[in-house]
Amino acid sequence: MEILGKRQAKLMNMRMNGQGSVRLEFNIPTRGLIGFRNAFLTATQGKGVMNTIFLSYQPWFGDIVSTRSGVLVAAADGVAVAYGLNNAQGRGHLFIEPGTLVYEGMIVGLSARQQDIPVNVCKKRNRLTSAPPPPILP
Length: 138
Hints:
Elements: H1 2-6, E1 10-16, E2 22-27, H2 30-33, H3 36-43, E3 71-74, E4 78-79, H4 82-88, E5 92-94, E6 101-102, E7 107-111, E8 117-119
Parallel strand pairs: 3-8
Antiparallel strand pairs: 1-2, 3-7, 4-6, 5-7
């Protein structure tokens, strides 16, 4: 109900079904339904059933609050390397590939979370430069 409220939906009817489920009927502008199916399935854990039908043309209901997903933002200037991209891909979907020139603040991917996440796609693997291994004695 909270998700639909942000999309200018008005509750028209609510009734209990015999199987312990609830049927909710809303009047919502079509533009409020854009992108709603995904949010609905997530909120109901895939158990909800949704049907839509055109009711009528109506006057403007008002602005719809949009939810913006976050982005992955490059934290440093340089060239993207495979090691840095491999670390960043666990945080979201990347747009770039190894060898891409990036600048600090550049959007390099989408995040599933709502906040922006800085990632260092230029980070190289730390190779330890230590003394050579000791010789093998007979």
